[in-house]
Amino acid sequence: MFGNDHPVEIEVGFGKGAFLVSSAVARPDTNFFGIEIERKYQLLTAGRLASRGLSHVRVCAADAKQWFSQLIPPQSVAVVHVYFPDPWWKRRHHKRRLFTLDFAQDCLKVLKLDGVLSIATDVAEYFVMMQETLAQISEFSVIPLDPTIPGSNVETNFERKARMIGTPINRARYRKTAEAPPRPASSPEVVAESEVVADSAD
Questions:
Q1: Distances from the Cα of 113 to the Cαs of 49, 76, 77, in angstroms?
Q2: Is 19 helix (H, G, I), strand (E, B) or coil?
Q3: Nearest 5 degrees, angle CA 23-CA 26-CA 28?
Q4: pLDDT tens for residues 27-48?
Q5: Which of 121, 138, 180, 181 is the most buried (most CB within 10 A)?
Q6: Cα–Cα dist 171/156, whole Å
Q7: Is 86 part of the annotated catalytic residue set?
Q8: Is residue 106 a known part of a binding site?
């Protein structure tokens, strides 16, 4: 996809692309891949990337769960960013939440050894659930939040709005410390058609 051996970072649900674009501008030697379910945001972000000539970023409009479970090669990603996923407030809608045990295990699968999963949400209940889910995976270990790590201080558009009204932000980072044993094979699903958009330099 990128034609080089630079590290790859994935942002799930990049929205209007504030984090993705800012990170790509600051770190030209890192490849970025964004997955966003809303096509209008994918097109918006693709335009922002193209206008800046950022050749090391790709974005697609697709279901992240399907990409992680079926399309992203194992042990190929340095960092997975999951920031402010939809909390699906109503209890009967909780099953629609992105962050499930299956998704967390798929994050582990695609990460390289010593790769990092970085999460953030302004919903305390959802954050507790994410922590409890990750605690079930022994190959993930909590690591300290380090503001000196590249990209640590880059905010998403949603985070900026939350901070403006004083909403607390919950953050955590996890390192992959070992490979997980193979999971039982599941029935293949039909992957919805998605379009990966490159920058204007291609």
A1: 30, 9, 9
A2: helix
A3: 95
A4: 999 999 999 999 999 999 999 9
A5: 121
A6: 13
A7: yes
A8: no
